[in-house]
Automatic annotation (TrEMBL):
Keywords for the protein's UniProt record, in alphabetical order: ATP-binding, Nucleotide-binding, Transport
GO molecular function: ATP binding
Protein name in the entry: ABC transporter ATP-binding protein
PROSITE patterns according to UniProt: ABC_TRANSPORTER_1, ABC_TRANSPORTER_2
The keyword Nucleotide-binding is annotated on this UniProt entry: yes
Keyword Cell cycle annotated: no
Length: 228
């Protein structure tokens, strides 16, 4: 499809641990189109984080084809990928992405600056995520769930085209996750982002346009009649 922002065909990726080689992804294909939100579920160790890191260029595939914004992977330099990660592809990592020596509001301003934006809506985002009171604190002075929400604010503030999110509500307690999931989703929809969301939160997954399951190295449509 021409309008796919991300197009992956037959991707494979393995890791070498000493003498052992484990193949995590093989024959994986995916299209992510503008404005579409896709949930990815799959057991621990199935390769979900590996997939996100292939799509944002942090690791290369062993084989297969990948195009982002219509550009083939083989034509992108490290510098191109870095530029894409700064400006167009936000990744919300599983273990947070805040700079420990900057306060929450400085983290936000920094991310906006990296993306080349002179103005940003970070304050409103913090309000929206109910963590306005953490703005002047450092990441180690706030809770895990607050850090996760601050990381969300950092990802949105760069005004990306694509959001890759690894368990965005993973370290939130049930009640906070229930509250943050719709906020996260509204922000994606309002901004018309394409989003690939690794999640086991049914609240998030059900709001997505499609749910895919990562199993035996490849993505398959999730049978929505099944429960989580
Ligand atoms: N840098 C690495 N070197 C070697 N093996 C790795 C590396 N990163 C991941 N793996 C292995 O690859 C497999 C997939 O890991 P990955 O982190 O992608 O899984 P995941 O689906 O994100 O799991 P989780 O739900 O626990 O976050 C696992 O078996 C993991 O141990
Ligand atoms: Mg993971």
């Amino acid at each position: 499809m021409d309008d796919a922002l991300i197009q992956a065909r037959n991707l494979s990726r393995s890791y070498r641990n000493g003498r052992e080689q484990i193949t995590v992804l093989h024959g994986l294909s995916l299209e992510l189109r503008q404005g579409e939100a896709v949930a990815v579920i799959g057991p621990s160790g199935s390769g979900k984080s590996t997939l996100l890191n292939l799509l944002n260029g942090l690791i290369p595939p062993d084989s297969g084809e990948l195009q982002v914004f219509g550009r083939r992977r083989s034509t992108l330099t490290e510098r191109d990928w870095a530029e894409l990660r700064r400006t167009r592809i936000a990744t919300l990592f599983q273990d947070g992405n805040l700079i420990p020596t900057l306060t929450v509001s400085r983290n936000i301003a920094f991310r906006a600056g990296l993306a080349g934006l002179s103005q940003h809506d970070g304050e409103a985002l913090l309000e929206h995520l109910a963590i306005a009171d953490t703005a002047h604190r450092y990441p180690d002075q706030i809770s895990g769930g607050q850090r996760q929400r601050a990381a969300l604010a950092c990802a949105f503030v760069m005004q990306p085209d694509v959001m890759l999110a690894d368990e965005p509500t993973g370290s939130l307690d049930y009640a906070t996750a229930q509250r943050v999931a719709p906020l996260f989703f509204d922000a994606i929809r309002e901004r018309g982002l394409a989003a690939l969301i690794v999640t086991h939160n049914p609240e998030l997954a059900r709001r997505c346009d499609r749910i895919l399951e990562l199993r035996q190295g490849a993505l398959r449509p999730w049978d929505s009649a099944r429960s989580f």
